[in-house]
Amino acid sequence: MEFSVLADSFNKMESTRKRLELTQLLVELFEKTPNEVISKIVYLIQGKLRPDFEGIELGVAEKLAIKAISKSSGISIKKIEEEYRKEGDLGYAASKILEQKTQTTFLVEDITVERVYETLFKISKLGGSRSQDMKIKYISSLLNDANPLEARYILKILLGSLRLGIAENTVMDALAIAFSGNKDNRKILEYAYNVSSDLGKVAEIIATKGLERIKKFEVVLFNPIRPMLADRVKSEEEAIGKMGTNFAAEYKLDGERVQIHVEGGKVVLFSRSLENISNYYPDIIEKIPKAIQADNAILEAEAVAINENTGDFLPFQELMHRRRKYKIEKAVTKYPITVNFFDILYCNGKICLELNYKDRREKLEKIVREDDFVKYIPMTIVKNENEIKDFLENSINAGSEGLMLKMLDKPYQAGSRGSNWLKLKREYQNELGDSLDLVVIGGFFGKGRRTGSYGTLLLATYDEDEDTFTSICKVGTGFSDEDLDQLYQILNPKVTIKKNPRINSEMEADVWFEPELVIEVVASEITISPIHQAAKDKIRKDAGLALRFPKFTGKIRLEKAAEDASTNEEVITLYKGQKKVAHDRNLI
Ligand code: ATP
Q1: Core vs surface per residue 89-109: b (16+ CB within 10 A) or e
Q2: Is 252 a known active-site residue?
Q3: Residue 421 CA to its chain's centroid (Å)
Q4: Which CATH superfamily does the domain covering 229-429 fall into?
Q5: Bridge partners for 306 per DSSP
Q6: Helix or strand holding residue 337 (H, E)
Q7: What residue ranges of the chain are covered by domains with CATH 3.30.470.30?
């Protein structure tokens, strides 16, 4: 398939944010795509080469790309940098430069999607001392044969700056229309995606084998399943109202969710955002095979830091020591953990998702053998408000965050947040009702004690419909000196010359960041805001929502991707909830 077809599509897609138009452009593109390349096209649309869980990073720095453009065009690095500064985007700058060049040379060979993809793949695999030269060679050879528009998109993919704003749901809508003629079949595709986390694979199967085959989609060991998530409730009473009078309550431990895939001695761990995190937990890798009484299994657990002497649970932050590179062996002994199992998704070659909670828990207790390191999450069946209260009290005393409440007769709904699981935290019972996980989009330089760091951060929610990050507040309180240091280290490499197009903010910041880092904040209230863009026009025309008195809780949520941050829908629910509480208390 000619790469120019893809570049033309990208060009059209970049000029719209409307979901229906994007879907139509995708359908047209899929219809022109031969089956052998459909999976590649789906990955490239998302600016990837493979599904996220494979952890393939292109990792090409701007400097290196500039050298490659210079090599291929014969134009000096300085001139390219000037053009880049003017355009604010290296892809655009390169196409401008190559436009001048193509007037004097002619193209040697048409480039195909396959060739671009294979070359990018080779680049992603390069490491070591000579890798820079090789990368430059590969990139410039592609650019030599590319027309300006193709060059723009090759560079955008390489630099990770291709942002078409196409959500996974839109891709699935388009696949359903293109290959089954009916958008409603998206639901069937969604199941396949939720159990494989691999949209390219789903596309390939529907294109080559049709919808019937998708219906029989199998879970594959070592491919992560998208996690089931919980709705929040504010009180025991609300939980009873939603779940009736016979459901399970489990401790909500304050650790990191780990999806454990195991077969024989092989163990692979995935985080909540489906990143392969096996390297951070060599202790789990080593000890799990002994504890599992099955040929193979996919299990879910919460890894929690513990006090070695007392066995008490420690807060989530303690686990983050394991994220520091090169010191993992030390961290394993210095910050010990236990692994607390709460679900089983696959066992001895069979999917368990359709089993109800009760049967899954029974199976889990049969398959997993407890010891000092391996535990089941404490669980009890509750029938009334008092029993929930007592268990919540026990859970908080044991150092956990609250309770997870789970319907006994319901299956595991991969990839969805719903009311078959509810979370009840002590902190929900006051003020706003919950903490929010927000994306850091901008920074303001600190003064006084905070000189040399970002004293205040601009934060955003995730807008699922638009696939953008909408500003919701500035936060400058709750930071210790150590937090400020750590945030500076993390955020500095994310500074961009121009605001990322996915950021939606009317407020100006001193610096803009790639929208990647998620931090947790609490606030006293959600208010209508003329400036902030979160949930714009949803509650009041021409106004968004903002947080009042936001405060950083100390939690940097490295395990969450930006798209896992609190959404505008969640903020609207909290806003309405707070109005209802005020109303119930006769405050308004
Ligand atoms: P939060 O920010 O409250 O951790 P979340 O968005 O990560 O929420 P939710 O499904 O809303 O995910 O809340 C469940 C989270 O709580 C899980 O992702 C998991 O990390 C953690 N957890 C702790 N104990 C349990 C449990 N018993 N069952 C399920 N999840 C648990």
Answers
A1: bbbbbbbbbbeebeeeeeeee
A2: yes
A3: 20
A4: DNA ligase/mRNA capping enzyme (3.30.470.30)
A5: 313
A6: strand 337-347
A7: 229-429
Whether the Cβ atoms of residue 443 and residue 456 lie closer than 8 Å to each other: yes
Which of the four pLDDT bands, split at 50, 70 and 90, describes residue 431? low
pLDDT of residue 452: 75
What is residue 588's predicted lDDT score, i.e. its pLDDT?
42
Residue 139: CB atoms within 10 Å: 25
Among 252, 212, 274, 251, CA closest to 50: 274
Q: What confidence tier does 109 reach under pLDDT thresholds 50, 70, 90?
A: low
Q: pLDDT tens across 54-82, in order? A: 989 886 888 888 999 888 888 888 888 88
- What is the Å distance from ligand 1's center to 85 Cα? 43
Gap between the Cα atoms of 257 and 401, Å rounded: 14
CA of 230 to the centre of ligand 1 (A): 7
E-strand stretches of 188-335: 229-232, 247-252, 256-263, 266-270, 296-305
Q: Rounded to whole angstroms, how far apart are CA atoms 356 and 558? A: 32
Per-residue confidence band for 586, with pLDDT thresholds at 50, 70 and 90: very low
Q: What is the assigned CATH class of domain 48-159?
A: mainly alpha
In DSSP notation, 32-93 reads: HS-GGGHHHHHHHHTT-SS-GGG-------HHHHHHHHHHHH---HHHHHHHHHHHS-HHHH
Pocket of ligand 1 (CB under 6 A): 229-230, 250-253, 257, 272, 302, 342, 377, 404, 423, 437
pLDDT confidence of residue 108: 61
Cβ proximity of 84 and 156 under 8 Å = no
Protein residue with its CA nearest to atom 4 in ligand 1: 254
Q: Where in the chain is the domain with CATH 2.40.50.140?
A: 436-587
Query: What would the pLDDT profile of 259-283 be if each residue is shown by its tens digit?
Result: 999 999 999 999 999 999 999 999 9
Tens of pLDDT, residue by residue over 305-348, are 998 888 888 888 788 778 775 677 788 888 899 999 999 999 99
Considering only CA atoms, which residue is closest to atom 24 of ligand 1?
252
Q: CA–CA separation, 334 vs 321, rounded Å? A: 9
For the domain made up of 436-587, give the CATH fold: OB fold (Dihydrolipoamide Acetyltransferase, E2P) (2.40.50)
From the list 67, 156, 201, 252, the catalytic residue is 252
